[in-house]
Records
---
Amino acid sequence: MLCRLGHLGLVVAALVSGASARPLARAAPVRSPQASPAASAAAAETKHRPSATVTAIVAPARIDARELKALTGDPVLGKADRIDGDERKGVVAFTFDDGPNPETTPQVIDALEKYNVPATFFIVTQRIAGRHGEGGRELVHREIDAGFIVGSHSVSHKNLRHAASEQLTREIDASIKALAAEADRPIGMFRAPYGALNTAGRARLKKLGLTEAFWSVDTRDWMAHSPSRLRKKVISMIKADGGGVVLMHDVKWITAEVIAGVLDDLEAENCARLASQREPILPVSIHYFLKDGKTPRAIPASVEQRTAAYEAALPERCAKRPPVTTAARPASRSVAMPTTKPDIQPSSGPVTRPEAVSAAKPAGKRVNKHADK
Ligand SMILES: [Zn+2]
């Protein structure tokens, strides 16, 4: 791990005067899970707690502003205007929040790799801290090594709608520090828990050069109970909107179960479009939704090449697909899931309650017409 920190340590040291230069501190440590009954009760009341094994966060030391600048100075992903997901049509960017979770995230990564689909993971850094975070840290490295983007989703998934400076420091600054150290690279994107951020929070992101990442396709996978219905709903929403930024949660068992089916549906849809000479909805990296003011940000050549390669490979992938019949396509194994499975991941505590979108969505945004009930 020290070697991973080496590069950033040098960057930081170069920017910080010699006397104040110090090694990059690690993520805020987490306390032992089996705390007092009072602590357990308090934890049980927590609305959204990514890990059942964490009950308290030790407040991080104040982070040197110059040091943070070095951790957020991503020239490609940072400093853009807020992503809303409606910046482009004809492309779709998948995003997964609240992870990593060793119980569910690997299945999501496997599916993305199988279908050659880029994605962004917004990490709750409490999950990669301390001795309980080892599995999570390994997953972050797997995501990065496989070419996925990682952004911050705060330290502990608190609602920041009314957050004051101290809490912003604890949740934004500290998560960036932890994630940049683990990723060994600057972090350019932040997604607020529940999408909720106040003026002070947005000012903090701007100061740090972080791009706020919202979404346009709210699958509400976190409240879904039926894999088959969720699968159908996600692809129909993507088709209805002609793409966008899709919000899902890799910590949810149901998402892990259906994502391969969703990506298969997307491929099938694109094959059908190809056959009828219509434009496909290409799965792309979130780069395609970056904008500066109203100007789309230039797409890095390597990212464009990946999209072009996907498009070029599509005819061959389509040729290998089983012929489409008028009957329903063969159900994925996810559809055969027992319906009695609870809507929580096995290792998790209380049911997570991710993005409360209806409340967080800015005024005037499209209302989700595809409730999962
Ligand atoms: Zn979340």
---
Amino acid sequence: METRIAEIASGIYRLSTFVPQIAPPAGFTFNQFLVLGDEPLLFHAGLRRMFPLVREAVARLVPPERLRWIGFGHYEADESGAVNEWLAMAPHAEAAHGHTGCLVSLNDMADRTPRMLADGEVIDLGAGRRLRWIDTPHIPHGWDAGVLFEEASGTLLCGDLFTQIGDGPALTEADVVGPAIAAEDLFGFSSLNPGMGATIRRLAALSPRTLALMHGPSFAGDGAAALRALADDYDRRFQAAMN
Ligand SMILES: [Fe+2]
Ligand SMILES: [Fe+2]
């Protein structure tokens, strides 16, 4: 296994590890995003067992001990598994997560007290980099779920939203909604609930220009349209499940 690096928006790097054994023959990617700034932030701590690979990839961009923030969309092995490895390596690093996730998991599981982010709260990385935390409870799964929006580049670090199988390019302008619908059919990873459409449309209101998928390529284009189409599909699924 190797971890490949690509800049998917100005100062935002995708670190991608492809695992052919998951969902064969297509395989599956695990991506982290490094946002540069005076206080560099890594979105997704990654799996504990992938930590050496991801650390080596980070080290090609910044000294890993300089990392200041470790964020993730929800508490789960591929999102947060290596959080304590990062905290041990980077003496000034703090985990940053939403209120729910800190209260139900991270205050106990993280080796240092995490920064608790309110819905809409901004992490200022300096150098013009501001990341806004947005609560998306249970979407696509996890009570503590949320996303980060990088305002300068219009990049939505959207975690498991738009998950797709396969090993595509680092950045694509191709459709990401169809592959996400196919992956939902395959895995059933989302927690269908009546708030899904409204919550995902709230993200569309940010009009992101880049969608940074945790599992799949990053998407450059009309992020709002993609989010609305995804919201429509989840509304359709929810209605179908209720009938
Ligand atoms: Fe997840
Ligand atoms: Fe994930």
